[in-house]
Amino acid sequence: MHKGTYYEDKLSAKKLLKCYEIASPRIKRYLDAEIQFVISNIHGAGLALELGCGYGRVLKAVSPFVSTIVGNDISRASLELAISYVKPCSTYRIVQMDASKMAFPSSVFNAVFCIQNGISAFGVDKRRLIAESIRVTKEEGLILFSSYSPRIWQERLDWFRNQSQVGLLGGIDEDETYDGTIVCKDGFRATTVSGSQFIEFFDEFGLNASIIEVDNSSIFCKVVKKKTDV
Known about the structure:
Number of strands: 9
Helix content: 25-40%
Shape: globular
Low-confidence stretches: none
Order of helices and strands: HHHEHEHEEHHEHEEHEE
Radius of gyration: 17 Å
Largest sheet: 7 strands, mixed
Mean pLDDT: 91
CATH class: Alpha Beta
CATH architecture: 3-Layer(aba) Sandwich
Number of helices: 9
CATH topology: Rossmann fold
Strand order of the largest sheet: 3-2-1-4-5-9-8
């Protein structure tokens, strides 16, 4: 099953929220470390875009630190929950949109970020997703992507097992689950992207990517869109 459909039909809104509520203290630390890294890098940005904002978990945390933040997601149910979840903040906008086929004009955002392994979790063509993130970013703007570090593999797997046990995901296919890839018996498949793969992806577009490991749990890819970049 296409993971885009999975997040639209099976793991959206309150079910998605539940995934984070049942996370272990170590996973919650990882999630917070990602947010803090994003904030430290885009603090003061004029217009920021989060790809795959879900119910607004990251959107709400980051919004006080930028002038305006836009979030897109394919799930209408998740976006409807985001309206109430992020409501105290007045500097956000949300839109239902496939992050790999965005309707935004080119060169409009000061910062674009896609974290918590969205590059794999969205289930879209990775190069197309990266191309779109580059297209909508202004010159000198910042692009951030993240995936899981191998160092948090066991905690990540335990988290997915917990989600499966409470019915948020299908049963884990233990025979097919290994080496950074988690496979569920209902068709859900979660992979990762390494630092070297991030570098190769952006190099195809003539961009230099910096790789930073955060909290022994995230691999961040950081790119500044220079004036000479495509």
